[in-house]
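>> received
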Amino acid sequence: MNEFELIDCLLRELGDVARGGDIVVGPGDDAALVALPAWCVAVASIDTLVAGVHFPPDAPADLIGQRALGVSVSDLAAMGAQPQYALIALTLQDDSELWLTRFAAGVAAAARRLGIKVAGGNLARGPLSVSVSVHGWCESDTALLRSGAAIGDLVCVSGSLGGAALALTRADLCVPPDAAALAAVAPADPCYALQRYYLPQPRVALGRALRGIATAAIDVSDGLAADLGHLCRASGVGACIDLDAVPRVAGASAELAVTGGDDYELCFTIAPDQRNRLSELPGACVVVGVIEAGDTVVAQRDGVPVVLGSRGFRHFG
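>> returned
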């Protein structure tokens, strides 16, 4: 198939998620035209997922599509932004119409679930990789940043951690079920770890609710210890994590929950007098530590320091 036939195939599968909403001109022109609310600022992010690094090369194409879009939308959630549209650049090793159709079906399913449109993108030949640029908006001066944490603030996380990292350590979890079955898996099922890896759930509603409550925020992509370290670096502070307080997926150790990546939950800080507001937030959020003076993230159990064997995912050592 030539490039134009592949693009037509992609657009057929994307269907309604490539049209409507705030998309004035979508896929098919040199660039998209998108309307923005007058009272907002634009929020944008981009992620690249490379086969063999960010997903198994033989993973089902529809799950790669769902994972790629979810991973990128999580960055908007961490900023307290409302997702609006995505641009997707796909590099393919061959011209398999079946693979592309399944990939597009996964993207479309994730786009509908997350309330985001696909406004355009690009196709190229080469080693398999997916780049997703996501765009949204946030009311002026309300975006969540990494740089606002202060000494004495409480460190909080949403959901449960360690599931996605657990999936990568279990040989019996190397083959995922189909997307529909995976989406229906309950937390007690061993395959729940695979659900956490392939079907990330960006905490968009939580991010929006945290505006005016959180002093700083970040999504947990590289691991709680590593991402909290990024937040602390931006805020000029340190932090201490209570390992026993960290919520984790069944089967994940406390260390894996703190150092494993790909959870796509939110880590955020709040002033102590805001603690009672955690119960008002969408989804379960708990306190796992405190911001301290210094410039490092440390962990403890029962008041005793614990040395972590890993500091989370790093691209370049």
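>> The first strand starts at residue 23 and ends at 25.
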